[in-house]
Amino acid sequence: MIDVIALRSRYLSIAEAQQNALLRGYDDINAQWHADGDAVVEASERARDGICAKVRVQIKQRAILTREAFEAELQIENGGNVMSEIQVTIKISQKDTGEEATERFSFGEPELVGITGVHGEGTLEPSTSGTATWIFLALGDAAPEEPVAYDVSGSLSYVMDGVLNTETLLPDTIQVSPDPQLELVYFHEYEIFGDDPFTLEVEPSIPYKLAVLVKNVGFGDAISFRIASAQPEIIENDKGLLVDFTIIEAQVAGEPAETNLEVDFGDIPAMSTSVGIWTLTHLCRAHFQTTTLRSRTRVQSTMIGWRLSKVLRFMNLRTVYT
Q1: Record's superkingdom (predicted)?
Q2: Which pLDDT tens digits describe the chain residue by residue (322 residues)?
Q3: Residues 297 and 285 grouped into a single domain
Q4: 190 lies in which domain range?
């Protein structure tokens, strides 16, 4: 017994396949079948020749901002004999309460001209002048939430003609602003779209994003904050794959940055946020398996002895799945 309906359906399917083969430029179904079979074999062989491997990529970046600093200068005119055992003590007190507050500040070593030292070993020759200049920074507890005024004073002691002399230095007033407190949250895409080595077609490279959300959760403004990036660097590629990550552009707050690598946020006010984005390309399709963040603080100064409050309080990295 023959199922006429099933037979008619199969006949229509064969006729439709024949028509599709003719539209694709083949003589008949058999010619298309052999061509498709050859393509499957070629794709299979290409897949066997393809390589799946892990590559480690490193992107070095520097976060830079301007810190509020103060300068104290002592000038000495020596109209007598040699001054020896010069010692300078700086004292800082809160203006409205008179409370001793020197520990709320960090001092670098002074720059000396004419004076050989200020820690009890210094000398200043007769009929000469000398200066000592200190740069100092306020720590976070100097102005936690609002500006605070401080008086900077101190004392100068020295020996001349065998006599110990001590002089009080007149105070000067400074205004200390609160520190910013920055949180950096990076976002990167899990999938990188580019040429798939397991297909015959050459797929185009689609740019992907590395973004950073900068949140200032402190009570002070972050002044001239910027993040300077290096180009991605391949630090591990055991199988020697052809890998090329490149940053091609950057944006800040939705506007193009002046350079591809540096994102200049300018001033970030207290309790506000800003966003920077780097756009990258890669030749081949890939995805990120693990990502890590490492950070360290470095002060660009020739002075020693700094104690710094921590401005960068938090960093995190999140993966975006598309």
Answers
A1: Eukaryota
A2: 334 333 344 333 445 555 655 555 656 545 544 444 444 334 444 444 455 678 888 999 999 998 889 999 999 999 999 999 999 999 999 999 999 999 999 998 999 999 999 999 999 999 999 999 999 999 999 999 999 999 999 999 999 999 999 999 999 999 999 999 999 999 988 888 888 877 888 888 889 899 999 999 999 999 999 999 999 998 888 877 767 889 999 999 999 999 999 999 999 999 999 999 999 988 788 877 777 777 665 544 434 445 566 788 888 988 888 6
A3: yes
A4: 54-66+180-320
Last residue of a domain, one of 132, 160, 176: 176
Give the pair of three-digit tokens for residue 51.
């390589």
Q: Among candidates 149, 175, 158, which has minimal Cα distance to 116?
A: 158
| Domain boundary pick from 159, 176, 193 | 176
Q: Number of structural domains, the chain?
A: 3
If one counts every other C-beta atom within 10 angstroms of the C-beta of residue 313, the result is 15
